[in-house]
Amino acid sequence: MVHVGIIIGPLIAAAIFGIGFFVMMLKDYKLSIYACFFISVFMSFFDRAYDIPVPMGVVLDAIAALSFFSIFLNPKDRPDWADLKHPITYLYIFIVVYQLLQAFNPNAVSIVGWVVSLRGNTSFLLFLVFFHMFNSISNLKKFTYLWLGLAFVVALYGIFQEKFGLTDFETKWVYSSTGRAKLLFIWGHMRKFSFLSDPSAFGLFTGFSGLACLVLAVGPFKNWHRIVLFVMAGIMFISMSFSGTRTAIAMVAIGVAFYIVLTIRTRRTLIIAVGVIGVVGLLLFGPFYNGTVNRIRSTFFSEGDASMGVRDKKRIRLQHYVLSHPFGGGINTTGGNGLKYSRGHYLAEGWDADSGYLLTALELGWIGLIIGMAFFYAVIGKGIDNYFVMEDPFLKTMTLAYIVPFMALSVAHFAQDAMFQKPVYLVVTATYALMIKLPSLEKQTTTHNIK
User: Would you call 171 helix, strand, or coil by DSSP?
Assistant: First the structure.
């Protein structure tokens, strides 16, 4: 530390810990999944605090790949791929192959963007790992605990930022870019981002997770479990509102409506429906006003909203390009990524596609968009089928806890690139695998309660 600098001490300690943890991940692939979740939640926070020169995104992808290979190193836990033969799997493989074939897209101007995009294929490896991990209800419970526990911590820190302000290093990060400061400061209120990369990722993750808590709160569990889950959902929704992300607010409304439609015959659903209508009515028409409330109301009363108008005009302006390029302009050719990897391309300008579906249509064409939407449809359809076919109360509830937020997020994907942001993409990938695996889990038991 005297000769090199004070940072060398923590780096050596981290290296020793990292080597030990690497060996542990080789022995137990589930630790890799948990590590991916922890890193995806806290990587932006530590980067803001310490300006870490290590590309954490690459580390995350490396651990995801490691989790796949480590499942073959334990002879006592060999994977069983019997149930993997399913339309969801076939469509996912089709998507991966289609993206690989984009290397030959004549509209692309650089191979670099395509090479960089190959990192995204680690999500398919994660899909296979989740498929193997959900071979027992115990593993499903542990992952759900981890997801909702981390989401609750993220929500609490968002509330801390709202009530006590940002730390010095967070304030420095906000004002290190003029464009970032303008984006975060809206209607006299600083949008909060908690541990995550930006308010959008924060709002979507807390809204997504809050929906899951709300669904579980009316499940076949003990009363004190329900109370805890209701409190967690409320805290997540409150924290979500501080992000100022209107897409997340709309996502929650869509998720609740979807849940009510699926379970309309139950008495609890009717009670929830009445309660939701009352809360929404109070928020929209109550005699109180501030930046957060005004932002929520603007989600449902958006006439004349400049931001929505810009997005609508952008979609209309780019429709001709989508229609005339069935295979798209090539991967990483749009907006900021286009400027970075595909300079000179027609789509490489200083703007954001905003909509995840628009981004797919521009880069992969309307053919790629149809394939992607068919994939989401297959996942949601399988979730609905599971709910009505399965008889186990616990597994039916778990189906809803994953598929209701997933469906809501797939709608939010129209307004933002919502499905693949960190850390929510991990739960999205887990949902792909879980929807296939749930029927076989039901064969293992008759009734299960969270212990």
Answer: helix
